[in-house]
Amino acid sequence: MNRFYDDQVLREIESRIGILDVVGETVHLTRKGNRYWGICPFHEEKTGSFCVTPEKNMFYCFGCHAGGDLFTFVMRRDNLDFKEAVALLATRSGVEIKPLSPESRRQKDKLKQVTEVNQTASQYFMQALNSPDGEKALNYLLKRGIAVETIQHFHIGYALPAWNSLEEFLLRKACPQQAVKFSGLIKRSEQHERYYDLFRDRVIFPIHNVQGDIVGFGGRVLDNSLPKYLNTPETELFSKRKNLFGLYQAKDSIRQQNQLLLVEGYMDCIKLYQAGIHNSVASLGTALTVEQARLMKRYTEEVILLFDGDEAGQREALRAIQIIRAEGLKVWVVSLPGGKDPDEYLDLYGKEEFLRYIQNSKSDHIEFKINRYIDTEKELNLETRSRIIQAVKADIVELPGEIEKDYYTRLLAQKLNVGEYIIRQELKNERNSYKEGINKHKSEIIRDNIGYGNYSLEEKILVSMLKEPENFDQIRKTIGLEFFQNQDYKELIKSYAGYLDAGEGGEQALNRMVRSQDTGQILTRVLFLLDDEDALLNSIEIRNFIRRVQMKRAEQRYNKVMERLNWLHEHGDFNSLLTFILDLETYINRTRKGVIQ
Known about the structure:
- It is built from 25 helices and 16 strands.
- By secondary structure, it is α+β, with helices and mostly antiparallel strands.
- Helix 11 (266-274) packs across helix 14 and helix 21 crosses helix 22.
């Protein structure tokens, strides 16, 4: 996140403004030991689970898991981006924002060059669409009902079938070759040792960030070949997890209406915009992410999920609800009839009927979940009824008003054909469990890990690696960093390693990561464990852990080896068998040295 300011500037701001002073403007804090507690400003709660640790200049909520440092708090509280939060706090503290360091300037210039490459590539794609060679792609868009004005508004283009036409165009336009490589628009062929265009014979949709810069592209085939959609790969400039298609065009309308329509595909979003519905965005061909939900929260308090009516669309809606609700947003779900997608429904019935259907047919997240769970069960027996109650009771308990709770208690009892008193008893039990959980969170971070204290083994490994450089080096050297099952922990430790490899110290790396949208929230929770000796492993425990990972990998490798040997033996491929045996000998030698990655 911090591409714009030297760390010295941020540290100076933090030294002049204490996090207690800033948080105290919003939250009434009570001191308990070396921490301060209060009601979380980021989610509805009655029991204070929001904690501030002044020594670390950090906050964390054990209820909604919001966390970070002084800048993160101001970003969330005031709905600002990082630069805006720094500017606000710099003005308040009287700190002058200094120019970037040479290294930061080089990084910024590199990203600027990649952005310019993307802009030039977009011009190429648009020119290709309007050339004789692009007639097929243009006709495809027109047949899909996309008007010429809409094509121009979204800068839709076409990638020619040739292998190197884009690369040649960019180099003719004096784009730096290194920046072209960094953009991800060309790929290296290992077989022929040359580069070729990533997008070929595809309709191209530019992806903008909220500032309007083109950070990536999506390409769709003109027929039924696979993959149907292809995106720019992950780069320093572009991440599918952090962007939403159409948000740049829709953000003003979303703010005005305080409502966002989330659809699945580029075409759905574009057709809605063309019809005059300007508050829609689309995910980028992947399941909705936490980062995308947080991006929505900057512009609205209400999201309508408008996914395809097929099984896959409804399943993704159920998953997206959990992510969006966790960010404190109101969620509605609309299921279009007949399994149609928004694009098809608009073509059949037009804008007015489309909006009327949404208004009359939208279900809030609880009703959608109830209906969804009932529809997926073959029959409503004792077991399935109990399963559905368990699945939705937490949602009902977390509702802020008693009238809402009563309504959904009655609705659930009616749909499941059970007595209301049964539902109310389950809700009572859930409330008690919720309160007990919050109280426990005040004194310690509890994990459901029977037989390993209050912390999971992965948490202990992670904390031990962050706390002691020797542990980090030992584990990384022997088993690498891919062993974490928890994806958040894996991404966090790899990010940490990246900072260390760039020459930064451990403490400096952690400070940068706390301010990152990718790692900040999960890292804040982990940093609360660093002062707890129970969360650390000793040297013997670490060696035992390494040995267990190595043994597991050796077992997996052995099974693969035997499968491969049997196959080679059956098919009589002597040369391949000989090569394989030599590779196996190399592997055995590395294993003897204790290096299995």
